[in-house]
Amino acid sequence: MASKIDTVDFSPPIVKEKALATSHLGFDWVMVVVCVWWLGGLFLDGWAHSNIPQLETFFTPWHAVLYSGYLAVALTLLVKGVQNLRLAAANTAEASLSWVALVRKSLPGRRWMQAIPNGYALSLLGIVIFGVSGIGDMTWHIIFGIERSTEALLSPTHLGLALGCGLALSGPLRAAWRRVASSPSWRQLGPAILSLTFTFSLLTFFTSYASPLIRLSPLSATTGSPTQGITNILLFTGLMMSFVLLAVRRWRLPFGTFTFMLGLNGALMAVFSPHSLVVSFPTALLGGLAADCLYRFLEPSLEQPASVRLFAFLVPALLYIVYFLNLAIVGPLLFSGGITWTIPFWAGAPVIAGIAGFLLSYVLLPPVLPVEELKQPGK
Questions:
Q1: What would the DSSP string read from start to end of 255-320?
Q2: Which residue ranges make up each domain of the chain?
Q3: Which pTM does this prediction carry?
Q4: pLDDT at 252
């Protein structure tokens, strides 16, 4: 039987929404602003758990910032939903109703769901999950006390908070994904890039115990075996390249996207280990700048698989070349010792990170599959 290679369309799938309210760019920017408040509270709380040993209560200034940011995001989405209900009720008998009565009227048949801006349904779910987990977290602290260091990242209630926060923070990203951008500019794609950065930073926050940018295992002044350090490098590479390739798949990105994404993340992660800022921020900033230059030069896209594969290899490889150069400079100056890893470990780390990125490119852009011809009747 003859066979042939069919052309496969790798463009992002079109998702049909169930008459959800349109999400506008202006609302995405508002959501990004209140999300900064929420995420900032999260990293402040992470700093407190890592650096204040006498922390013994749920009611702290850091929790106040975290939960007030959560309420700001929830209120912003609620107000927008009520506004959309009011717009839908214009020129009808419901136009004169109060907002409480309007919401009550929208409950039968779940009509209120249609007032949620497109892309933000999961954000609403995240707000509910975070609220429930917050109550559970207060109860957990009363019963079991305050967690320390890595414990705080792995308690069940904190993981519930992470899930809820991630669903909410990624709302502007989902909204932008479902909307056609008129130009690859920061004004048009800014909310998506910021939301992408926030979600990436949330994941690196909850895996900070394995972050090579703050757990400086190649230096003599820190602990950790080379094999554990390589494992940390692979984990961070997997997280980073998943977000980088996701953005590459969907948009033509403005210059500075990866510099901002990685640089901000590198600065935020230093809350867990302030002395590591001299490594985490410069490494992430220069690695992001290298990624932006590669993106401009290689122009990776769905139509050019080879450029995607090369881009996916070079981005993490260059990031870790910068990382080890940085350690070689600041180690003797600030950490009383240089790199203690043997040459095969530190020279092979950028290569294995590049290979991990290269393999992930096949998730973004899998090879075309051979499709067998259908049997013709009578054959």
A1: TTHHHHHHHHHHHHHGGG-GGGHHHHHHHHHHHHHHHHHHHHHH--BTTBHHHHHHHHHHHHHHHH
A2: 19-100+107-186, 207-369
A3: 0.84
A4: 92
